[in-house]
Amino acid sequence: VHKSLNIILWNARGLFSQNLKNREKKLQALRLHIFKADIILLQETHAELYLIQKYFGLYKQRFQIILSSCKDTSSDSDSADDIQHSGGLIFMLTKSKIDASATIELYEAIPGRAAKVTVSLGNHSTIYWNIHNYGFSAAETTELIQLIQLDRQAAAQDPQHHSLWCIGDFNREPPHTPRISISEPSRAYYPHIGENTNHNHGFKWDALFQDLVEIVSPDPTHLIADSMLLNNIDRAFTSVPSHAWLTVQSAISTLIRPMMH
Predict the structure, then answer these.
(1) Tell me, what's the pLDDT at 1?
(2) H or E element in which residue 93 lies
(3) Which of left, alpha, beta for 243 (phi over 0: left; psi -120 to 50: alpha)?
(4) Percentage helix, strand, coil, to 5, in the chain?
(5) Helix, strand, or coil here: 238?
(6) Which of 73, 80, 167, 196 is the most exposed place for a label (fewest CB within 10 A)?
């Protein structure tokens, strides 16, 4: 029985940046925390398979590493054409917490932007959705949320055997949550009503989130550069019912401050 589960989520905003100095800076930030985690879900990595092999090879003994990239390339170079796309999801699952006979499957709803990994053993399963909600059409958003709802319903019907985690950069702030000004930290700023309702099809996501339990971060996770405001758009949800958390000692912290990347 595993007594703890440590999850890291990070929109790296170009983990494998074309700028090699920025790339090393971001990789170093990840190295500082990578062995503290059981599950790592990364968004906007700009990753391709050859980059995973080049930079993550030393982690393969500890982690099962799964990539969902926006497009396939056959190149093995760092040219701009190979990594100009801005998506790319990485899943890293600690092997010691997964039974050796378990099945691990990747499903890409929107490659590089929304994908899930299902870990199943017998009639037990855990699903990890990794999402970067960016550039989705209304139809794509509706279809994606329907897929997540199907997984949520399965978990709700049999929580002893099935669980769901829905994690990532949703570009969607929690309702009624103020933004923090770097220059005026005591002043609360709130999104405009229209932005709060329609941005990135937010009302559709809110309907989904109401059916899940959110693991709330007490600290901002994102910097809005043009206004120098901090907000929370990197969020984690689970199907594990709220009453089950009464016996769990949960702790959330911001490992990489928004201004650092």
Answers:
(1) 46
(2) strand 89-94
(3) alpha
(4) 30, 30, 40
(5) strand
(6) 80
Tens-digit pLDDT profile for residues 217-228: 877 788 787 778
- How many C-beta atoms lie closer than 10 Å to residue 171's C-beta? 20
Phi, psi angle pair for 140, to nearest 5°: -60, -40
Please name which of 182, 193, 176 lies closest in space to residue 220, comparing C-alpha atoms.
Answer: 182
CA 215/CA 42 separation, integer angstroms: 17
Q: Say if residues 132 and 43 touch (Cβ distance below 8 Å).
A: yes
Strand 222-224 and strand 229-231: the pairing is antiparallel
Percent of the chain with pLDDT over 90: 58
pLDDT tens digits, residue range 125-156?
Answer: 999 999 999 989 999 999 999 999 999 999 99
Contacts of 16 (CB under 8 A, 6+ apart): 23, 45, 46, 47, 48, 51, 55, 83, 88
Asked if 191 and 173 count as a contact pair (C-beta separation under 8 A), the reply is yes
38 in Cβ contact with 5 (< 8 Å)? yes
